[in-house]
């Protein structure tokens, strides 16, 4: 039963995420393709200029981490696999989303998004492992 709820939650969350990535936050199609293939370039830009537009800094750095935490929690509930397999599945999905964003000109293909989103995935996975450990301790006690 827990697995069915996790599947439902991840489908709902993925739908919400697709909306945010393509239409939310007043996104509109841009006139040109935008991309960044230099690791930490966008991240360092936001860190260096954080005081100019705080909301943009928060959305881009913290938001790109936090928004992917649910995948790290829900994927292991849906399928019991090793962390590496979950992460590869996550990266494939992320690559598809980033590529569609780039091709539709509704965002940019940014390697820093992969870094931040992956951090969110691992944070979520850590939360999942802590929940599993906590529940097994309670059962033993």
Description:
With 141 residues, the protein is mainly alpha-helical. It contains six helices and two strands; from the N terminus they run αβααααβα. A two-stranded parallel sheet has the order 1-2. α4 (69-78) crosses α5 (83-103), α4 crosses α6 (111-140) and α5 (83-103) packs antiparallel against α6. The mean pLDDT is 91.
In short:
This protein is mainly alpha-helical and 141 residues long. The chain has 6 helices and 2 strands, in the order H-E-H-H-H-H-E-H. The radius of gyration is 17 Å and the shape is globular.
- The count of domains is 1
The average pLDDT value, as a whole number, equals 91
Structural class: mainly alpha
Low-confidence stretches: none
Euclidean distance between termini CA atoms: 24 Å
How many β-strands, per DSSP?
2
What is the CA-based Rg, rounded? 17 Å
User: Could you estimate the helical fraction of the residues in percent?
Assistant: over 70%
Query: Strand percentage, roughly?
Result: under 5%
Strand order of the largest sheet: 1-2
Largest sheet: 2 strands, parallel
Elements, N to C (H/E): HEHHHHEH
Shape: globular
Number of helices: 6
List strands and helices in order, with pairings:
Blueprint: H1 2-22, E1 34-36, H2 41-48, H3 54-66, H4 69-78, H5 83-103, E2 108-110, H6 111-140
Parallel strand pairs: 1-2
């Amino acid at each position: 039963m827990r697995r069915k709820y996790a599947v439902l939650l991840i489908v709902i969350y993925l739908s919400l995420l697709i909306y945010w990535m393509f239409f939310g936050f007043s996104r509109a199609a841009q006139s040109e393709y935008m991309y960044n293939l230099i690791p930490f370039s966008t991240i360092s830009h936001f860190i260096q200029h954080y005081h100019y537009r705080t909301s943009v800094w928060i959305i881009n750095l913290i938001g790109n981490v936090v928004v992917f935490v649910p995948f790290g929690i829900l994927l292991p509930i849906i399928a019991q696999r090793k962390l590496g397999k979950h992460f590869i599945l996550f990266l494939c999905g992320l690559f598809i989303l980033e590529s569609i964003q780039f091709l539709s000109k509704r965002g940019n293909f940014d390697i820093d998004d992969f870094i931040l989103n992956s951090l969110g995935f691992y944070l979520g996975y850590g939360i999942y492992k802590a929940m599993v450990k906590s529940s097994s301790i309670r059962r033993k006690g």
